[in-house]
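ESCALATION

Customer reports they have been waiting on this structure for their group meeting. Please prioritize. Original submission:
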Amino acid sequence: MKYDRIFNHLFVKFIGGVASIGVGLSLGREGPSVQMGSFVGNWAASKFKVRIGEQRHLIAAGAGAGVAAAFTAPLASSILVIESLEKFNAAKTTISTLLAGATAGILAQLFVPNNIYDSIIVAAPDVSFEKLLLIFFAMSIFMSILGKGFSHLLLYSKKIFQRSSTSIYERLAYLTLLTWSIGFVYPTVIGGDQNFMIQETAQANPNIYFIGFMVLLMMVFTTVSAATYFPGGVFLPMMTVGGLAGNFFTLALIKLGIVSADSLGYFTLIGMSACFISVVRTPLTGFILISEMTGHYDVFFATLIVGIFTYYITELIGVVPMNKKLYDFMINENASKYPPRTTMDLQVNSNSYLEGKDHNTLKLPNGCIVLEVYRNNEKIDFNSNITLEKNDQIVLELDSADLEKLHLPLVSMSLDNS
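Update from on-call: job pushed to the front of the queue and completed.
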């Protein structure tokens, strides 16, 4: 996608993100950050006249840098962009995203050197390895069900908000009243931060019923906040829900006499990772993100095991990745606002499927056609057959509803297969 007024978009996203979090909505700073980063990548691609096929590397790198700045987790943030968008099918994207993420993450750590997670004490439970595996498996089932519930609630909230007959101002007034009511009673809950979760984890013995209530409250508050379309992400609030759910799970184990209260912080961090994996369905990111973001690398092995269990359980119970759900909702619910057809740009690489093929004989998915071909930045006349060559830039036209599922297969056709 090309933006004509990049800096206008940057300004609006920045102000909107600050306003969303500033008024107390349960939204994360990573949402505007990733969008602003991709805007900068898009601007750089246009400014330096980067070829169409190479532009996505800069856009992905900008997005990775934005997430890294929000999480101060350069490796996990870069992997998130690659894992969810590019699927590791382009070495240039991987390298550029990792470099941009590392740079942004290091700068973010310089500006925000304090780690709010240092107060969480992490201690593995003193049980046998076999019993620990059973605990991990039980927790994975619990977090998978929670993740599926969160995804459904998020989509349901968006549908209710969009189809409501009340005016946008009335809906925002109700949301503001809800936010301030929650903030009056629990001031550390609002604003998309994780201070409340950290404070409860630091307590010697939180009340299990209160924590269970707060899990439900945070789920509703986060999904309702996200339904308003205010600039903001759901990753940080979602991980807060996961951390509180991990807290709740641990308190249940304590009541059963299986573990001691010393393990509260341990399972809280695992819950953050498992909830992320169950909703976003990007396991590699989930394994790394919590350890890197919190600085507690001693939970990495545990998040790895629980994350693997969670990923396959969510696969079995049919949890759809959040980004796919939201994209399908955007297209289906706003069909009148979006054109039925859209375009996608590709660059022909050497040894790719496209190289040497006649543009009329390409085996493309149903509904996908070659709209234009450019060679040396000049449009080629379609009056005759065109044999595609290395560095040719082609413009494909396809149904807007198919863009999400066809993006990766089409990109793969343009990549070096040697």
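Sent to customer with the following note: Residues 340-413 form a domain with the Alpha-Beta Plaits fold (CATH 3.30.70.1450).
Escalation resolved.
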